Amino acid sequence: MATKPSAPETDAAAKSTKSGQTANNLSDPANIATIHDQQLHRGDGGELHQLAKDGQPVLTTAQGSPVADDQNTLRVGARGPALIDDFHFREKIFHFDHERIPERVVHARGYGAHGFFETYESLAAYTRADVFQRAGEKTPVFVRFSTVAGNKGSADVARDVRGFAVKMYTQEGNWDLVGNNIPVFFIQDAIKFPDMVHAAKQEPDRAFPQAQTAHDNFWDFISLTPESMHMVMWIMSDRTIPRSFRFMEGFGVHTFRFVNAKDESTFVKFHWKPKLGLQSVAWNEAVKINGADPDFHRRDLWQSIQSGNFPEWELCVQLFDQEFADNFDFDILDPTKIIPEEILPVQPIGRLVLDRMPDNFFAETEQVAFMTQNVPPGIDFSNDPLLQGRNFSYLDTQLKRLGGPNFTHLPINAPKCPIRNFQQDGHMAMRNPVGRVNYQPNSFGEGPRESPIHGYRHFPSEEQGSKVRLRPESFADHYSQARQFYISQTPPEQRHIAMALTFELSKVETTVIRERMVSHLLNIDETLAKTVAQKLGFQTMPKPAAAAMPTRQDLEPSPALSIVERGPKRFEGRKLGILITDGVDAELLKGLTSAVTNEKAVVELIATKVGGVTASDGSWVEAHHMIDGGPSVLFDAVALLTSDAAIDDLVKEATSRDFVADAFQHCKFIGYDPSALPLLKKAGIAEDLDEGIMALPDGDSLAAFVSQLGKLRVWGREPSVKLGKASQPVK
Ligand code: HDE
């Protein structure tokens, strides 16, 4: 507050120096007069709330009392102590102090969106679930994507599993399919979950590292837990650094049951398949994205939905019976196993479209309460011990996070079908029954009754056995599917797994933990183990880990497990970053922009000044980013549309070199106007180095360039850049 230091500060002097804050100041007599004047002449309560000076509604306390001054606390004199009479101040601060609810212990960082699920055909033969009875029916949905280990404020592109939690508001209650973007899990029994999560999150004494598994505790636990080896292959693959939520698969992970009207059960595994294909970023790219835009995934979902490019997935199922399950030598109740799609194809049964962002992040995305136990009639659980444990955990966790048993009254959690029961009272009850009868049976003929016909009937599976704490023999093979995953990857993807393992283990300080991990890798793939050992600087190889069951060498590769094999083959939904300068060829820029937009992809322009540039035809072109804020890691491909006149200045910008060098080392396609050759040269790139460096002088090569973009990366380049450098395995 600017007061002249020498002037004696009176109340009046203080008032007169409140820069622009006097308009609603009660201590200003002019204001009091105006407000009183208005209040006296009000017609009804409605008008009372339209009385502020600029025509805006009047600010009130939570109790509805109109507020006269929201800029100054009530004090004894302008420089005196605050008064407890100031109920407005106390209420405001009290509410602020309680704005946070506990963040989720896992999956704290997340982002959600609304949409719908559309059923393709009736599945009545398999399930009585109302949502699957009528072709073409649309069911409202809320989805929350998340990372697992990081805190709420952590960066989006951490190497981590992504949560893919779907709440369908069906006419027979909410169905929550609380899945991940990886079809298997670390552990086979829920009792290990707290240990696993403790080990993965920050170490408790130092509270770091944040949102990273690259530390001793994680790899210590993992290396002592052979059942996690299949999951380890997935998390060390590019699956854990997705380019966008829109380009990820989702999985229910566990085996569930469909149950039809005749109470017949079919086992089912759920898969979400993204319409725009799979895509991940490179690790070196992820690290840089997290610096350039920690909200990379949030922004991507927000921008695509706000611009009407609604992300879409197909819900697919693998359906099988007990006889089919008995043919495997692994157990379909074991959440560390998959059924390869080549053995049991996935069938699409509907589509999920996300078309609306929440109005309020806290109310919806933060307060949404997913629970595996939310299943409508026709969907049931299997005995997967992880699923059984989750069915306890989620309700318990919601009580803690949302503070009471009435969290189903919150709009985001409330079913969109009738709710009738005799539950009452409790914290923040908002759905309150009326009338005398709050129990049943009752003699008054009031209230709802149970229905054996329409009500949820649990599948009457035969269960028997002694009470034991035992891991079944059928859960003992920890390496065969880990190996199958590894051999299903393309060579660049295999290299990325080796590099990720090397990076993570290089952050592990305890040598014996690194060795223990390599001894597990030996049971998965010898070359992988030896490559990692070499990159870590091992002098000798450890012995293979003792295995409960030998690794099967006969499992066929499953191409469905490779991201590259499941790529989009088109540029739709992706982003081209065009670096422009003054003098940019206006025709070329226009042609390239429309070619890319025709592919339903997005163009963003980067210039040295965000204000923009003057194009060759004298027109002014605004940029989306200044070059420091728009590095090439934010784009799927780049183009350099420069001019002879401006290139010398551009070459002097260090960031422009990084823009090109990064795009190159991340194996992206680079289109360039010939005037940009000095920039390529500065980044150490020969113009004819590979198919991905393409000159863009005329219409023909423009079309060729855009059609190439669907490949997303020039994988052939990778071995020549540092990222994918092959190394000699340790003998
Ligand atoms: Fe969760 N998990 N989980 N989980 N999980 C939670 O619930 C839990 C597991 C998953 O966007 C918590 O509301 C146990 C597998 C997602 O709000 C908690 C076990 C899979 C989300 C919890 C598992 C998941 C959670 C924390 C081992 C993939 C975020 C906050 C038995 C199939 C949902 C919360 C959202 C969240 C418990 C294992 C997915 C503590 C005990 C396997 C996507 O209840």
Short description:
The protein is of the alpha/beta class and 731 residues long.
Structural notes for this entry:
The protein has 731 residues and is of the alpha/beta class. Among the domains are: 94-186 and 251-280 and 298-409, Beta Barrel (Catalase HpII,  Chain A, domain 1); 575-711, Class I glutamine amidotransferase (GATase) domain (Rossmann fold, 3-Layer(aba) Sandwich). The chain is built from 21 helices and 18 strands. The longest helix is centred in the middle third of the chain and has 18 residues, at 385-402. The chain is globular, with a radius of gyration of 30 Å. 40% of the residues are buried. The protein binds CIS-heme D hydroxychlorin gamma-spirolactone 17R, 18S. CIS-heme D hydroxychlorin gamma-spirolactone 17R, 18S (HDE) is lined by residues 104-107, 110, 144, 146, 163, 165, 178-180, 185, 190, 193, 253, 368, 370, 386, 389-390, 393-394, 397. CIS-heme D hydroxychlorin gamma-spirolactone 17R, 18S is lined by residues 104-107, 110, 144, 146, 163, 165, 178-180, 185, 190, 193, 253, 368, 370, 386, 389-390, 393-394, 397.
Distance between the termini: 72 Å
CATH superfamily of the domain at 94-186 and 251-280 and 298-409: Catalase core domain
Mean pLDDT: 92
E-strand count: 18
Structural class: alpha/beta
Number of helices: 21
Basic shape: globular
Strand count, sense and barrel status of the largest sheet are: 10 strands, antiparallel
Under CATH, the topology of the domain at 94-186 and 251-280 and 298-409 is which? Catalase HpII,  Chain A, domain 1
Helix content: 25-40%
Give the strand content.
5-15%
Question: Which ligands does the model contain, each kind named once?
Answer: CIS-heme D hydroxychlorin gamma-spirolactone 17R, 18S
Low-confidence stretches at least 5 residues in length (pLDDT < 50)? 1-44
CATH architecture of the domain at 94-186 and 251-280 and 298-409: Beta Barrel
